[in-house]
Amino acid sequence: MKAKLFILLAFLCILPVKAQNTETLYLSGKGLGDTKTWKFYCSDGMNSKKWSNIEVPSQWEVQGFGEYSYGRWYTDKSIKNPPMETGIYRTSFQIPSGWKGKQVSIVFEGVMTDTEVLVNGVSAGDIHQGGFNRFSYDITDKIKTGKNNLEVKVSKESSDKSVNAAERKADWWIFGGIYRPVYLEAKPTIHIERIAVDAKADGSFYADVFTTPLEKGYALKAVLTPVKKTIAPVYPNN
Predict the structure, then answer these.
(1) What SS3 state is found at 25?
(2) Structural contact between residues 94 and 125, judged by C-beta atoms closer than 8 angstroms
(3) pLDDT of residue 12
């Protein structure tokens, strides 16, 4: 749902948004040197065709799986196709009892490249394509309090040729896998999803505020707070 605000300001101001108590639960580590161990199956290449352990986030090649390949593989006429292995990740997670009645999303900061997500054996949504994009799924209706199972199927090469042309055919090494953090976000059922602000130099202020569906009786309230004027210190000339 989108609400619009247009305010003519006589002074410079900011629009604070009240905190909505978003809670975050990491399913992976938070980055380099901070990982968690998941179960992993690689279709081809090193350590393939068997279930093993893998650290998340990471690229599976540097964890000893699959096959290294170079983005400009097509310049070698003896190579018909780049390595096209797929990986299956599995882990489980606990949903806190305090999250009952909240909207829960699973967020992937980055996966190379086509990604299919299953929560308790149910598809979380359409396959995501594009290795550099943050993406998420609303999984509120697919989880339960207590233990839940997560499976992530990753294809190193995209089924979309335009994605491969944009992301894979270049002067760098090609990697596959969940290489950025994965986490859950729990929010109140009614919340602001995002805002888009257009502030003009003449003092006019326009904002699109996108919320979850609102029932009759809800109102959107904006509070404008003047920015405190800061006086720069004056230093004497030497």
Answers:
(1) strand
(2) no
(3) 37
